[in-house]
């Protein structure tokens, strides 16, 4: 018994060591630096909680948090609706086309965020302008030069990137629904919508827990897509929290202040994620 116990810790030790080196120690250092005036090279002075008090007076940071929150809500809703619809589509009996469609829908997730940003920048700046010139419709003009359309441009990009990934999660849960339940519902006279809403949808509660968590956490952490598509413009009106923190750290060289922002942002993400997990897990228990 002792031998098994020792072997367990021997195999676990490398992972624990890596976790401590990569996560725990940097986090503790980050908390310390957030209490100082730090420029990335040296700690000038210990300022206590001044950085935290100042960030609540920082209008641009507070705006970036609100912008990120709105972006996350819109993206999570879009990603999960489209991901579920795609999963329902590719789980139909279409022979070899199932594999082809799954591959096509998943491919955007394999493209890096920077490249995705430039692809959609070309679409919004070139393709949309071309459509506007041909049709005379002003809707397609200046998408990235306006705050509102820039916001929806970011949402479209992120939804396009993540929907295929979330689709895979829904597919795995849809395939695990017992066929006997679907057959029984069909025999009882349920139509396609009723079979989905009354049988499949309640059984997808665990999939919603996973998918909402992944899409929500990834939406809050978006940086490279934001930088490549709008670079926070116009006038920082589409700047997300991650970009605001990065600019404070590496453009202003105020890393202590940036670290305080990062910790507050981490706490916000953690609280929202815990609430989301609690609410969706509760739904699973009720089913």
UniProtKB/TrEMBL annotation:
Listed under GO biological process in this entry are: transmembrane transport
Membrane topology is: Multi-pass membrane protein
Domain ABC transmembrane type-1 span(s) in chain numbering: 65-276
GO cellular component labels: plasma membrane
Main subcellular localization, coarse class? membrane
Membrane-spanning residues where?
A: 7-28, 61-89, 110-131, 151-173, 201-220, 262-279
Q: Name one Pfam family in it.
A: BPD_transp_1
Protein location: Cell membrane
* Alphabetical UniProt keywords: Cell membrane, Membrane, Transmembrane, Transmembrane helix, Transport
Q: Which domain of life is it from?
A: Bacteria
The UniProt family comment states: Belongs to the binding-protein-dependent transport system permease family.
The name under which this protein is listed is: ABC transporter permease
């Amino acid at each position: 018994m002792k031998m098994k116990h020792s072997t367990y810790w021997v195999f676990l030790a490398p992972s624990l060591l890596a976790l401590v080196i990569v996560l725990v120690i940097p986090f503790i250092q980050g908390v310390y630096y957030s209490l100082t005036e730090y420029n990335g090279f040296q700690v000038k002075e210990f300022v206590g909680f001044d950085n935290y008090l100042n960030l609540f007076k920082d209008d641009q940071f507070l705006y970036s948090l609100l912008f990120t929150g709105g972006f996350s809500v819109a993206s999570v809703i879009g990603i999960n609706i489209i991901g579920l619809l795609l999963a329902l589509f590719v789980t139909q009996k279409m022979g070899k086309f199932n594999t082809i469609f799954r591959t096509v829908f998943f491919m955007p997730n394999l493209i890096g965020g920077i490249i995705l940003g430039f692809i959609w920048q070309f679409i919004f700046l070139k393709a949309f302008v071309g459509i506007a010139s041909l049709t005379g419709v002003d809707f397609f003009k200046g998408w990235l030069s306006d705050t509102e359309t820039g916001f929806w441009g970011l949402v479209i990009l992120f939804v396009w990137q993540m929907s295929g990934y979330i689709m895979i999660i829904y597919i795995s849960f849809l395939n695990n629904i017992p066929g006997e339940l679907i057959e029984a519902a069909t025999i009882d006279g349920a139509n396609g919508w009723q079979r989905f809403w009354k049988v499949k949808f309640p059984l997808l509660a665990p999939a919603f827990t996973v998918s909402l968590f992944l899409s929500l956490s990834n939406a809050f952490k978006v940086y490279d897509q934001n930088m490549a598509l709008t670079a926070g413009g116009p006038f920082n009106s589409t700047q997300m929290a991650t970009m605001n923190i990065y600019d404070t750290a590496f453009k202003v060289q105020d890393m202590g202040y940036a670290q305080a922002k990062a910790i507050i942002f981490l706490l916000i993400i953690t609280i929202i994620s815990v609430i989301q997990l609690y609410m969706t897990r509760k739904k699973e228990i009720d089913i």
